[in-house]
Amino acid sequence: MNHLGVMVILREGICPGINEEFIKALQSEDIKTVEDFVSCNPEELAQKCSLSYKALVAVRRLLLAQYTAFPVSGADLYEELLSSTAILSTGNPSLDKLLDSGLYTGEITELTGSPGSGKTQVCFSVAVNISHQLKQTVFYIDTKSGMCANRLLQMLQTKTPNMEEQMEALQKIKVFRVFDVFSLLACLQHLRSNGLQKASVGGGSVKALMVDSVSAVLSSLLGGKQNEGMSLLIQVAGELKMIAKDFNIAILVTNHVTRDGNGHLKAGLGQSWSHVPRTRVLLQRVEDAETSSLRTATLTKSSRQACHLVEEFDLCHWSEERRTSISGKRKLEERSKP
Amino acid sequence: MEFRNYCAKINEMTARVRMAENGAQLVSRLEGRQSLRDIEPNIFPVDCGPGQGDVVEFHGLEGTGKTETLYHLITRCIMPVQSGGLEVAVVFVDTDYHFDMLRLVSVLEGRLAEDSKEGDCSENEPEERVRSCLRRLSVVHCNSSVQLLLTLHYLENTFSSQASLCLLVIDSISSFYWVDRFNGGESTVCQEANLRKCAELLDRLRRNYGIVIFATTHAIMRNYGSDSGVSEVPGSSSSSRRWRLADSATDFDKPYLCKAWQRIVTHRMLFTKSHVSKQVFSTACTSIMTKGVKRCSFHVMEGGIKFVCDK
């Protein structure tokens, strides 16, 4: 089924009972697509064309069965979710607290922040945690050439001195490089149609997908009067959501920030993208901190926790718990660790 | 000659009888659906709750509480009467994979727990009570406007045969706006064709079966040059002006979906988030049947919505 919303044209063989004469008879009434056909009343149609009422009703029923989405009972859906949803810890206790234990499969989580706020570093740390600690495959879609295998190796070396373990974890992080929206769409569609199950390494399944960053490929399409840009943005959103839901994968995307009318920071890519992620975290540098690796994460959108929760953490000490909040400046000085 | 016409007429009439409804469908159509007028007096105008055949549009920016309000209303519908619910069935059409079952279940559990404190602690464990409520809910995912149209046609059978199905929720009906606009090329008629057909079908469904329809629309169009009150936006129809006069001025309130949809909406609820106090959300509800605006504020807590109403 074409998910782009383009009309479905009535063709011979599209369903049993539709042959050439059938289609010709319908065309004489100016009915060319499935949706036109289904919208017509079979009684009236039987009177206008030379087709039998029974045949029309039968074909209508078959087409509907083929092309509609079927309702699922809420109870069954809930059972399925309970058994299939997993929460992936990010490895950082402060961030996990903000995200209500971690990244949830089946959902898109967004990291926003200005350049240098640490979004890519956070993605690396989370990927390393998932591949090494949780032993699951991670798909990393890099649109900015920010992926640096050396940095990943460095992070792994702090977790374990064992070379084999490090290599195994590195192999579980699969990197895809795309630089424009069409290759991003092609990559996502490929993953969805056959890549995901086959590409998982070492028997583990794929549980996480990261896109760093979506705004790098989408922001240049927006603005002006072109409709194509918005349509492509919605298509990317649709692909990501389908992958998250159908394969039970946690998706992490990064986005830039802009300022709104009141001077507050808000996520980039505008209103239409803002509906897409289920959870959004804003990363910022800590002003006047003695170590430049300190960051604050603010929860700006969540369906599980109250918004505007803030947690602080150190990019260089990822698994450490920071027991301070942003107001405890004195405690910050006490905690300087090598 | 007249006799032949008479025969033709009889044939036509009997032909119609042949294709008529079966017993269950007839009963469900005549009996009428249960009324949802008392579903939530806090947010709907007095005596103007959603009756049979009403269409309520939930409009607002992202993060303003539309989906949370929907979950609140759905919970009220699917809970049993002893717990304060309406015990009716709901169909939820999800167009952008937005539906959060886990959140709905937290809200449901919260409401069931608070109602069981007063009433008797029935034999059923909480899990079973949640499941029996969830059986009254059906969820459908659509990923294009064509699929939405065809699914609504398919659902017509469900509406005609199931009399307890009183509510259709579409979250959201504006998801395919940009994709349709691009695929329709230059002609607005082509762009809006699918949504127009959906709106016409929804109109027929609500009139024939008396179901209530709740649909959310995202506020994505900027309202350039709008004052509080009269709008100067070129091309705004009289129907959009009627809504705008009652609404509080917002930057993103321009109605942009096709006219066929705007014509069937009977209640419009505008959601906003307070700038002053970050945790407060507000709704402003207008309806074509009453004058004036019903305003309400609420917080979103872990167990669902908590109203802070002033009227």
UniProtKB/TrEMBL annotation, chain A:
Top-level division of the source organism's lineage: Eukaryota
Sequence ranges assigned to domain RecA family profile in this UniProt record: 84-257
Family as reported in the entry's similarity comment: Belongs to the RecA family. RAD51 subfamily.
Gene source species: Onychostoma macrolepis
Assembly mode: Part of the BCDX2 complex consisting of RAD51B, RAD51C, RAD51D and XRCC2; the complex has a ring-like structure arranged into a flat disc around a central channel. In the absence of DNA, the BCDX2 subcomplex XRCC2:RAD51D formed a multimeric ring structure; in the presence of single-stranded DNA it formed a filamentous structure with the ssDNA. Interacts with SWSAP1 and ZSWIM7; involved in homologous recombination repair. Interacts with BLM; required for stimulation of BLM activity by the BCDX2 subcomplex XRCC2:RAD51D.
Keyword Nucleus part of the UniProt annotation: yes
Example GO molecular function: ATP binding
Gene Ontology CC terms: chromosome, telomeric region; microtubule organizing center; Rad51B-Rad51C-Rad51D-XRCC2 complex; replication fork
Free-text function comment from the UniProt entry: Involved in the homologous recombination repair (HRR) pathway of double-stranded DNA breaks arising during DNA replication or induced by DNA-damaging agents. Bind to single-stranded DNA (ssDNA) and has DNA-dependent ATPase activity. Part of the RAD51 paralog protein complex BCDX2 which acts in the BRCA1-BRCA2-dependent HR pathway. Upon DNA damage, BCDX2 acts downstream of BRCA2 recruitment and upstream of RAD51 recruitment. BCDX2 binds predominantly to the intersection of the four duplex arms of the Holliday junction and to junction of replication forks.
Stated name of the protein: DNA repair protein RAD51 homolog 4
SUPFAM superfamilies assigned: P-loop containing nucleoside triphosphate hydrolases
UniProt-annotated location(s): Nucleus
GO biological process: DNA strand invasion; double-strand break repair via homologous recombination; reciprocal meiotic recombination; telomere maintenance
Keyword ATP-binding applies: yes
Keywords: ATP-binding, DNA damage, DNA recombination, DNA repair, DNA-binding, Nucleotide-binding, Nucleus
Pfam families, A to Z: Rad51 (PF08423), RAD51D_N (PF21794)
